[in-house]
Amino acid sequence: MFNDRFAPIALLCLSSSLLSAQAIPVQTAAAISEATSVSDAGPAGIIPLVKGPNLSLTTSSQHDSTNGWSSVLSPDFAWRFDRHFSADVDAPIYASVNVVVTGGTKAKPTYTSATKHFVMGDTLLNGHYEVEASVLSYNLTGTLGLPSGSKSDGLGSGQVTYSFNNHFEKNFEFFTPDIELGIGDSSATQGARIRKSYTTVGTLAYFQAGGAFDLPLHSTFEADAYESLPISGQTLYSTTGKGKKKVTTATSSGIAEDNGFTTSLDIPLSGHVTLSGLYNRSLRSHIDTAGFSLTFLMKAPPREPGH
What we know:
The protein is mostly beta strands and 307 residues long. It has one domain (2-297): monomeric porin ompg (Porin), CATH 2.40.160.40. It is 8% helix and 52% strand. It has 2 helices and 17 strands. It has helices spanning 2-21, 29-32; strands at 52-64, 68-80, 85-90, 93-104, 109-116, 119-120, 123-131, 137-146, 161-169, 175-186, 198-214, 220-230, 234-238, 251-252, 258-268, 273-282, 287-297. The protein has a 12-stranded antiparallel barrel with strand order 1-2-3-7-8-9-10-11-12-15-16-17. A hairpin with a 5-residue loop joins strand 7 (123-131) and strand 8. The longest helix is centred in the N-terminal third of the chain and has 20 residues, at 2-21. The protein is globular, with a radius of gyration of 19 Å. It starts with a helix and ends in a 10-residue tail after the last strand.
């Protein structure tokens, strides 16, 4: 079963070696700055575009139609080893989040809404492999999730988790279409910039297709359609029960399925600060989530010649 499950990933990894054979030599900082993006990592520059470290801090506020407002601080430490390999660590801290607290007894439990402050989500360790080619650019991201978030609050998975994501893109002047194929055992490792009000644990496949548009003033607008498809039983840990009893132990393959679309608009205010607007619509769950964020970079990304 292990081989069957990871056969698509092996094939996609093999395709990266074929792309490597066609890779265009990259020598300058400006050329490196055009390297393929890391999906859902945030604005350009969080993963450094030239060799060496970078430190970033993203502060975001979002409104979930089922769970109200939350605010998150996301410090990220990243390191680029060369033009192909990089890694980063993301440790989200919820400055404010609404949760459902379970009380009472096992026979007669009670569920009370509460707001918690400065609690951790799951820490993500990410490794990235990039290939910049004339025909197609490719990025493989492997993620290891550490259970630093509380599963009882719906902010963590309660166990070590993993994911592998394959990102393909092609640049056409002002438009860059992309497609993604991934697999993992938790929704928390998918790296979405919009944080959902639940975490699922169980094997699922992830598909995404869309593209990014270059706008004036170095701004970027991206829109993508996505599908999360469970391929095994799932356990759901939720911050909210939508007015019903909170689900924390039910196991089913259907509860984790999700599809919809997501958009983002990144507007650099300076080389070190980017303002972002974010929106996600879950068609399956009928949930709207919108928010904004500020990302502060220790090291600004290099500009392309003529910009």
